[in-house]
Fold these 3 entries.
Entry 1:
Amino acid sequence: MTTRTVSKASWIYTVVSLLMVCVFLFPIYWMVATAVKPATEIFANPPKLIPTNVDFTVWQTRIFENPRVLRYFVNSLILGFGTTFLTLALAAPASYGIAKLPIRGKSFLLSISLVSLMFPAIMLALPFFVMFSRIGLTDSYAGLILANTALALPFAIIVLRPFFLAIPNELTAAAQIDGCTPFGAFVRVVLPLATPGLFTAAVFTFLFGWSDLVFALSLTTEESMRPVTAGLWNFIGSNVTQWNAVMAFSTLAMLPPLAVFLVAQRYVVAGLTAGAVKE
C-alpha cells in the first residue's frame, strides 16, 4: 500500500469519525440551543439550527428563581455521592475476596453478579416499595441510596475484580510479614494500587445514583425528596409544555455528571484500559 493510499484512507477515517461525533453531539447541542430560544423560534418551521434571538428569561423565572430546583440538585448530589460511597465500601472487599481469597463458590457469586445486571430497575421497584414502606424507608435518602446501590453493586464488583487480580500476592504477603493484618494490607497496599479501578467504579456508580428515575418516582411521594430526574417532570405539563424551560433544566442537570467525569477522566481511562486485559 502506497503512502498516498494510506493518507487518503486516513482522511476518510477522519471525516467519518467527525460525522459520527457530530451525530452523537447534535442532541446535546439542540438541547442547549433550545434552552436559549424564545417560544416563537422553538416551533418555527423550518426549525432554526442557530438561535437568532437569545433569550434567558426562562432561566431566570423558571430555574434560578425557583427554590425547588436547588432542592432537586441537593437531593441528587446526596443520592449520587451516597450511592457511590456505599457501593465502593461494599464492592471493594467483595471483589477482592472473589479475586484473591480461597472462597468456595466464587464462580457462582460472579455469575450471580452478571445475571443481576440483566434485571431492569422496574422489576425491583415494587418489591423495594413493599419492603421500605413497612420499615419506614420511603421518602428517605437511605431508602433511595439502598435501592440505587442494589443496582450499582454488581456492576462495581465486576469492574473492580480485574484490578485486584492484577495485584501480585507477594505484595500483600510482604505487608503481613511487616506486621499488617490481612485487612490492614488490603487498606494500605491493595486499595492504593487499585485507585484507577476505584475511580472508574465511582464515576459509573455516581451516574447510577444521579440518573435514576424509576426509584425516584416509586419510592418518593414528597416533593422535597425528589431528585433532578423526577423534578424534570414538573416542567412537562399535561396540555402545554414550556420546552425552553425543560431544556434549560436538562442542560443544568447535565453539568454535575460532566464535572465528575472530567475530574476523574485520567483515572477512568486508565481503569478501563487496565480492566480490559483478561488475567
Entry 2:
Amino acid sequence: MGVLIDGKKLAEKLCEEVKSEAAAMSRRPCLAAVLVGDDPASQIYVRNKERDCLKCGIDSRRYDLAATTSEAELLRLIAALNADDGVDGILVQLPLPEQVSERAVINAIAPEKDVDAFHPINVGRMVTGEGTLMPCTPAGIMDMLHEYGISPDGKHCVIVGRSNIVGRPMGLMLLNADATVTYCHRHTRDLASFTRQADILIVAAGSPRLIRGDMVKDGAAVIDVAMNRDPETGKFFGDVCFDEVEPKAAFITPVPGGVGPMTRARLMKNILAAAKCRAEK
C-alpha cells in the first residue's frame, strides 16, 4: 500500500509561509486576474484564486471582459496592467475565445509580472535553471517530491503528456534535478513499456484511467496531474486507475486533493516572488 501524498496539507503549509512573508512587506502583493467570457469552469478557477489571495494576505483585482472582446482590447488592458506599479502579478485565465491569440496574450504580459510563468523569457530562464517564476503545476510537483523525500537524482522519470503547461516544463525541472527523463505522448508506441520503467511516473495526458496497474512497476512514485469529471456521478478522477496502481506504488497522489491544491499554492508563491523582485528594484 502506497503512501498517500497529501497535496492539500502541503498547500496549506505553503500558503501560511506566503501569508507570513507577505505581511512583512511594506505593501501587500497584488494580483490582477483577467477573465474573458463566461465559461463556468474558468469562473470557478478565478474565484478560487481570489479566495487563495485573500487567505494569503494578497490583494486581488478582477477584470471581467465580454466573450466578444477583441484581441486589441485585451492587449490594451494588459499594457495598462504592465504599467501599473500597484500590480505585481498578471494572470489571464485560459482558454480564451477563438478571436484572441493565446500566444499573443502570453507574450504581451511583462515577464516580471507573468505569475503563470508562460512567457518565453521565463521559460528560457527555467531551462537554464535561473528561473524565479516557475510554472505552477510542475513547481508544485517538485515541492511534493521534496516534502516526501522523493529525490529525482539518478531516477528514471517518465512523463505522460507534453503540454507547455505541465509536461514539457516538468521534464526540464526534473532534468535540472539530475533525473533521467523520458517523455511519452499520444504518438508513443507501447506506452506501457516506458511507464513500467519509471521510478517516478507523472501523468498529465487528460485521458481518464489511462494508466492501469500492470503499467506501473512496484515501488514507483506516481503523480496524477489530471482532473476528469464523471458526467453521471459528478465525481472527479484522474488519468491513473487509483485502485489498481495504489497497491503497487510506494507513493501516489489522490484525485482530488493531490496536485490541484499545490498548483494554486504555487501561484501564491509566484505572486509573492514577483512582488519581492519588484520591491528590490
Entry 3:
Amino acid sequence: MTTAAYQGEPGSNSATAARALFPDGRELPCTSFEQALDAVTLGAADVAVIPVDNSAAGRVADVHHLLPESGLFIVAEYFLAIRFDLMGVPGATLDQVECVRSHVHALGQCRKILREGGWRTLVSDDTAGAAREVAELGDPRHAALAPPAAAELYGLDVLRPEVEDDPDNTTRFVVLSRDAAFAPHSGEPTMTSLFFCVRNIPSALYKALGGFASSGVNLTKIESYQMGAGLNPSRFYVEIEGHPDEERVALALHELRFFSSEVRILGVYPAHPHRAAS
C-alpha cells in the first residue's frame, strides 16, 4: 500500500489529488510542504503529492527551490480541476455570514463572491482547515471557502456551490519519490524536469538555452532562483516536452551541459492527458 504525504488537512485539494492518484493508498496529512518532503526522505511516506502551479494564482509551492535539496525525484504529474463551495454551519444562511475563511490562494480565486458579499476575510493555513475551523466555531456568522468534500467531512452546509471565479481553474500537482524511476522512452508524450547552474561567463544563459531552440525542444517552464546571500550564479528550474533518450533532447542537453557548471535531471515522467486537451 502506497503512503502519500501531502500538505493540508483531510478534505483539501491536495488530499483529493492524492486519493485520485493512489485510490487504495494511505494518506499522510502534513502541516507544510517541507514536512511532506521530509516524510518521504525519512521513509514515513512513499511519495509526496505537491501542488506546483495554479492556472489562476500561478506558482503554489516553491518546488524549484525545495526539490533540488531534497534528493527526491518527480515521477508523475496530475492536473486537478479546482472547485470551491461557500459553506457554513448547519442551518446558516448567506444573510448571516460576516466573515469568510480560507487559504490565501482560495480567497484570491473567489474574489467575485467575496466582493458581492462584502464580507471580511481571514486567512487559514489550508482550505479544508478553514472548514474545520468553521465547524468548531459553530457560529453562523463564519463561513469557509473549501473543496466540496470538506462540507461532508466536517458536517457543514453548502451555502453556495462552485463559487470559483474561473470555471477552468486547475492546479498541477507533482508526485515526488525517493527513487528516480524515470519513465522509459516509449514514444508516448513525456515531460522532463531538471535544474542547472550556468557558468559565470557572458551570455551563458543564452548559449545554454540555444540548444533547445535549435533542436526544436519546447520549454514549458523556466524559473530562476538564487542560492545564498552572495553573488553566486543563479540556478534555473526547467521543464521540457520530451525524453532525454530522444535525439533532439539529447542534443539540447549536451549543449546545456557545455555551458553549465551543473545539470541535474529531477524527473522523467508521462505527460498528463490534460496537456493534450489544453
